[in-house]
Amino acid sequence: MATREEQFHYINKGQEDELECHGFKRDKVKTSVTAVFALCTLGLLFLVFYWRPEWFVWAQFTSCAPGEADVVLLRTMDDYRTWSKERVNIETKGSMHHQISLLETRCDGDTHQLQDLPTLSVDSSPDKPIIQGGGQSDDQSSRYFIHHCLKYVWNAEKQTFEKVRGLDSGMPCSLFYTLRQGLSSPDQENRRSLYGDNAITVEVKPYIKLLFYQVLNPFYIFQLFSVCLWMSDEYYYYASAIIIMSLGSIGISLYTIRKQSEMLHQMVESHNTMLVKVCRDGEVCSEVTSTDLVPGDVLVIPANGMLLPCDAALITGNCIVNESMLTGESVPVTKTPVPPQSSDLYSPEVHQRHTLFCGTQVIQTRYYGGEKVKAVVVRTGFSTAKGELVRSILFPKPLNFKLLTAAYRFVSVLVGVAMIGFTFTVAWMALDGESVGEIFLEALDLITICVPPALPSALTIGIIYAQRRLKKQGIFCISPERINICGLLDMVCFDKTGTLTEDGLDLWAVVPTKNNSFAPAIQDVSQLPLGPFLTAMATTHSLTVIGGNLSGDPLDLKMFQATKWELEEPGSEESTKFDMLVPTVVRPPQTMVLLHSPDKREHPYEVGILRQFPFSSSLQRMSVMTRTLGSDHMVVYTKGAPEMIIQLCKPHTIPADFYEVLMTYTESGFRVIALACRPLENKVRFLQAQRMERNEVETDLTFLGLMVMQNALKPETTPIIHQLREANIRTVMVTGDNILTAVSVARECRMVCPGQQVVEVTALPPTDSTPPNITYTVSTKHMEPQEEIKGGEIAVQMQEDTVDVDDSGDQFHFAVSGKSFAIIRKYFPHVLPKLAVGGTVFARMSPDQKTQLLEVYQDLGHYVGMCGDGANDCGALKRAHAGISLSELEASVASPFTSKKNDIQCVLTLIREGRCALVTSFGVFKFMALYSMIQFMSVLILYGVFANLGDTQYLYQDLVIITTIAFVMSRNSAYPKLVRQRPPTSLLRPPILFSVIVQIAIQLAFQLGAFYFLLAQPWFVPWEDYRLCNDGSMNVTVNTTDINATVGPTLKPCTVDYEDESDQGVWTYESATMFGIATFQYATLAFVFSKGKPFRQPVHTNWLYMLDLIILTALNVWLLLYPTEPVAYFMELSQFPDFTFRLWLLVGAAANFVISWLTEVLLADNNALWKWLTSSYHKHHKKKYQILREELLYDKDYGLPVGVIRPQGTGKEINSNVGHVGGTRSGSIDESDDMENSTYL
């Protein structure tokens, strides 16, 4: 028997998808007992098991070691701790060569060992673990299970299940070149059995199957129970109406799910089955189906390109690739081979410029000498980048939305109330001697009254209306349940380029160097002399000619077009002048002659680009190796971030005023690019150049100058940021651009207001002599005085409603670079939350860092929105509570919302519509809850006197009143102004609970008042007396001499002849009274709970709703005061003999309306009152970010536990020895005109 520690282990430990894995073996005794209980419950037990899979396993299986399990229970390690079960399969094969190197490649030893590694078998060296069955001594079988489309195989040595990985884990880059001859056929077959088909299969389930899964939802099961109960009670009409409404709701859901499945299926099907050429058994190339590909296969990329069916590492040639599916960026990207001599471990994320990703389109290929362009398959199926994207859509993370949690709690309270009524009904009717069948029918009916079966349909209708309104405004939604969450957003993160600013960059000027000093800025590039600077501009790019047009990165395109040079692709005779084929040739527009010694021959000035080191976001630069026609040496040109380029340049070539000039441009909002070059030695030839490492090439550069690009703000940006700020919604910039440029744009769009400080946070990693440290630089440079703010603009309020700071000039904003963010996250994780709370600008952030930042904000309690143009924002868009993509490309599939308009106006629209939808959902939920409680109380009062409402009366209330109101109540549009006040986040907030409880009490009071007022009437004879009289138990006479009104079809003592037994207790004064008062209460609460300002348009703008309320009120008045005899008969109404009594009931209904409305307006919706009442609670129950924000605002040292103030005047690098280190304090203070005197703790 396994010990408790052995019975579970962790899978994917330390990763985002970490799981707790428990093993179970089937127990025959438990299974038999469970089967008996399932038969006794008519299969309902298995329905419960469907909802709770862990119960299914616990009921039929016994805990065991995972290696012996028949079934595994998996539990997520996030806040939700959700369970799932998977069956363990056993695969048997005569000769299995499944090697753990495919799961975790560990490469040690010499070249021969590396060469043999991809074909390691179970007979390989003992230091390599083997996949085999748990507890088995042979290697003839392996245990595995499939979870979320990924395969997990049992590793007997490590005693754990491991995710099957390809060659993307622990594989040295140099090893790929040992695989260039391809796999042998046996090895390919073995790998095929391990990895399975290379396909991303998205099943498009038939409607009947989707319907089956949909109706198993607990709400729909309860609806089914209610319908069956009503049918047995001959309540056919409303049961039919509920069936129609539910079918409509289910139909819409099925259509949405099916459409999404079809869209995903179409997105992946194009590359699931296609013919590809691979090299196997040496250099033999053959065509195979793409589903047969396995990691290690060598894929041949045709010259005219292809759609990639897998992830592959490029080993020969170059590829021009369109990666819009993954990044949203339609600009072609150049892919180059994996570094052949590099010992770095390969990672698709780190080496993405050398990786061809599944689903991307190779437009064209290039190779020197006409050889094949080859790539080694590293990942297949759902393990690919596209597979991960599809999996994230198929298995999204659960939403932490308080409305859903509170809704279930609210329903559970209603169930509790229903059980009280159930118990009362059973006891009361049992004492009266009713039959068992009748008792349970009436008691169960009470449960269906208390828990409204139409609730899911009513809430769904509201979401549908919101989705339609968004669609009309150009915002498409693939995750409708997130619309309500948009109403809770209190922070929005924005990408900069293409989101806040225009997509394109314009070349504003160039600043070349002369004699190691900056020359004056030149705005007309044509005035530049022919030389290294101009040649660098013409060559440091990845442009290509597609369809006769230049295509590539917009920055590269603007830069090259400014030179007016010509670009020629390989293939023409002219390109052979360089002794061998080269990818690209560039030349000036006019024929220019350059004389070369020693032969003094004349050559046209043409530059061939021999090799390209693509732009890397982690390195922040790109380089090219070139040779000028007729020259005897090669030249390296490099372009990149100025901060990075100067680290690679010879110090004496850098102008002394470099930092001052750089800051002049960056603080003015320009994007600055640095250029540098390096002539290579004459002895470096073409083949040697192809083998050189990047770090060998990009060193000892000569600084050439700066290129200044202008990126203008979109005209809508600043007004929208201002509106968000006024609405108390925090805005943050998360960009890959330079930090100074980002700060300038933040000031320009008023994320950072005039008079406010910017604190630049710089973190340095540990060195041999110093530990890691953080330094803070406070700058007031370029700050406008606060009094210059225009009347329509207000300073950013960095505090929440609970914090009030009078001197906004003391406010500040942190600016953090991606490099510092990574260091702080690693070495100072306790500082990161405060930096996030005070941070406004996060620059040079990688895609992963953007996602990590959003996770920090979510952990602090923020509801975070993310708006990006799709390029490098996919992860953050998926992670945010509400991701808004401004790209309509395939990358928008990863985002819940996509805007057709390419500006951030959609953020305002989405928040307004989200608030409207959220408040509408609360109103509908409250109305449906009160509707059920009103009917529940009415019926319970009638049950007390052995009376009931008639079927027609139920039908009128449920179908005519409730259903029509539910359909039109949600039609109010969003209020056009985004206000500072925020909607409630939960149904359990005190104002909402107060509203519900007090309104229930008010309705109950008026129902009891009407009932006892009826009892006080001189003409009234209780129904109990009639009932006993008709049973022959007593004889009653009624004095009617005092009745002045004409008696219509009223009940007479001992003379009622019921047509049907079910009519008993319906034709009563008690039933008519409770029916009359309840119908008015429904209309009253429908009006009271329809909120208008500040989140929705006033209720009168919803003309269909107002028309419905007017018609319903008129019908109610008519049925109460004077219905015609046929109508009274049809409605099963007993008419009151005294017309004055009817008028008093109408007066009571009017008083009910006034009191309910005043209670809601003056008390429930009184924000000032509730703020005062709950101030003590909120003072001691604040969110994390509120606590940290107060610390930052009231702490003169910004509340930071580390650091030292440094001046920002020279812009020079901060001395890393001056910062706070570890847990000690630094007392260093510098004084400057550009900083305030203070000491950081």
TrEMBL record:
<feature type="transmembrane region" description="Helical">
    <location>
        <begin position="407"/>
        <end position="431"/>
    </location>
</feature>
<dbReference type="GO" id="GO:1905165">
    <property type="term" value="P:regulation of lysosomal protein catabolic process"/>
</dbReference>
<feature type="transmembrane region" description="Helical">
    <location>
        <begin position="1072"/>
        <end position="1090"/>
    </location>
</feature>
<dbReference type="InterPro" id="IPR047819">
    <property type="entry name" value="P5A-ATPase_N"/>
</dbReference>
<dbReference type="GO" id="GO:0034599">
    <property type="term" value="P:cellular response to oxidative stress"/>
</dbReference>
<feature type="domain" description="P-type ATPase A">
    <location>
        <begin position="276"/>
        <end position="393"/>
    </location>
</feature>
<dbReference type="InterPro" id="IPR023298">
    <property type="entry name" value="ATPase_P-typ_TM_dom_sf"/>
</dbReference>
<keyword id="KW-0458">Lysosome</keyword>
<dbReference type="GO" id="GO:0043025">
    <property type="term" value="C:neuronal cell body"/>
</dbReference>
<dbReference type="Pfam" id="PF13246">
    <property type="entry name" value="Cation_ATPase"/>
</dbReference>
<feature type="compositionally biased region" description="Acidic residues">
    <location>
        <begin position="1230"/>
        <end position="1241"/>
    </location>
</feature>
<dbReference type="InterPro" id="IPR023214">
    <property type="entry name" value="HAD_sf"/>
</dbReference>
<dbReference type="GO" id="GO:1900180">
    <property type="term" value="P:regulation of protein localization to nucleus"/>
</dbReference>
<comment type="subunit">
    <text>Interacts with MYCBP2; the interaction inhibits the ubiquitination of TSC2 by MYCBP2. Interacts with HDAC6; the interaction results in recruitment of HDAC6 to lysosomes to promote CTTN deacetylation.</text>
</comment>
<dbReference type="InterPro" id="IPR023299">
    <property type="entry name" value="ATPase_P-typ_cyto_dom_N"/>
</dbReference>
<dbReference type="InterPro" id="IPR006544">
    <property type="entry name" value="P-type_TPase_V"/>
</dbReference>
<keyword id="KW-1278">Translocase</keyword>
<dbReference type="InterPro" id="IPR036412">
    <property type="entry name" value="HAD-like_sf"/>
</dbReference>
<dbReference type="GO" id="GO:1903543">
    <property type="term" value="P:positive regulation of exosomal secretion"/>
</dbReference>
<keyword id="KW-1133">Transmembrane helix</keyword>
<feature type="transmembrane region" description="Helical">
    <location>
        <begin position="954"/>
        <end position="971"/>
    </location>
</feature>
<feature type="transmembrane region" description="Helical">
    <location>
        <begin position="1141"/>
        <end position="1163"/>
    </location>
</feature>
<feature type="transmembrane region" description="Helical">
    <location>
        <begin position="238"/>
        <end position="257"/>
    </location>
</feature>
<dbReference type="InterPro" id="IPR059000">
    <property type="entry name" value="ATPase_P-type_domA"/>
</dbReference>
<feature type="domain" description="Cation-transporting P-type ATPase N-terminal">
    <location>
        <begin position="178"/>
        <end position="230"/>
    </location>
</feature>
<dbReference type="GO" id="GO:0010821">
    <property type="term" value="P:regulation of mitochondrion organization"/>
</dbReference>
<dbReference type="GO" id="GO:0032585">
    <property type="term" value="C:multivesicular body membrane"/>
</dbReference>
<dbReference type="GO" id="GO:0015203">
    <property type="term" value="F:polyamine transmembrane transporter activity"/>
</dbReference>
<feature type="transmembrane region" description="Helical">
    <location>
        <begin position="443"/>
        <end position="466"/>
    </location>
</feature>
<dbReference type="InterPro" id="IPR047821">
    <property type="entry name" value="P5B-type_ATPase"/>
</dbReference>
<keyword id="KW-0968">Cytoplasmic vesicle</keyword>
<dbReference type="GO" id="GO:0016887">
    <property type="term" value="F:ATP hydrolysis activity"/>
</dbReference>
<dbReference type="GO" id="GO:0019829">
    <property type="term" value="F:ATPase-coupled monoatomic cation transmembrane transporter activity"/>
</dbReference>
<feature type="transmembrane region" description="Helical">
    <location>
        <begin position="1102"/>
        <end position="1121"/>
    </location>
</feature>
<dbReference type="GO" id="GO:0043005">
    <property type="term" value="C:neuron projection"/>
</dbReference>
<feature type="transmembrane region" description="Helical">
    <location>
        <begin position="33"/>
        <end position="51"/>
    </location>
</feature>
<dbReference type="InterPro" id="IPR001757">
    <property type="entry name" value="P_typ_ATPase"/>
</dbReference>
<dbReference type="InterPro" id="IPR018303">
    <property type="entry name" value="ATPase_P-typ_P_site"/>
</dbReference>
<keyword id="KW-0479">Metal-binding</keyword>
<feature type="transmembrane region" description="Helical">
    <location>
        <begin position="928"/>
        <end position="948"/>
    </location>
</feature>
<dbReference type="InterPro" id="IPR044492">
    <property type="entry name" value="P_typ_ATPase_HD_dom"/>
</dbReference>
<protein>
    <recommendedName>
        <fullName>Cation-transporting ATPase</fullName>
        <ecNumber>7.2.2.-</ecNumber>
    </recommendedName>
</protein>
